[in-house]
Input
Amino acid sequence: MDTKHPDSEIIDGLGGTAAVARLCKVKDPSVSEWRKNGIPSARRMYLETIQPDAFRAAESAKAARAA
Output
C-alpha cells in the first residue's frame, strides 16, 4: 500500500524528491520516506524558512479541496 502523506504536496511544490534532497543535503530515499511519513519537524522548519511560498501554496490547495 502506497499511502502519501499530505506533506507530499509540499515536496512537489519544492521541486520534487531530488530537489528537496539537495536542499536538505540528504539522499533521495530519505525524502521518499517523508512522502509516506511526513517531513521531520526540523527539516520542515528549515524548508518553510527558505521556501515559504511552497507551504502557502499547499495550504491554499488544501483549503480549496475542503471548500
